[in-house]
Design goal:
The chain is mainly α. It is built from two helices and two strands. A two-stranded antiparallel ribbon has the order 1-2. The mean pLDDT is 83.
């Protein structure tokens, strides 16, 4: 049986910076990621909205192991 993943605190601002960098290298820009200031204790990141074609491109890249 798989163990449940234990969440650890990660600075949400650092997470957004890291995500933007990785997506940029993959040729994708998410225009509106932001820290969810309504729940600071949870450290949530809002990924925002993207066009459907961008969502499909990202899904295809994930299925291939991140190559796109």
């Amino acid at each position: 049986m798989a163990r449940a993943h234990q969440a650890q605190y990660v600075d949400p601002y650092a997470a957004i910076k890291y995500l933007r960098s990785a997506l940029s290298r993959a040729g994708t820009v998410l225009p509106s990621p932001a820290v969810d200031v309504g729940s600071p204790a949870l450290g949530l990141v809002e990924l925002g909205r993207v066009r459907a074609d961008v969502a499909i491109r990202r899904a295809e890249g994930l299925r291939r192991g991140g190559d796109a």
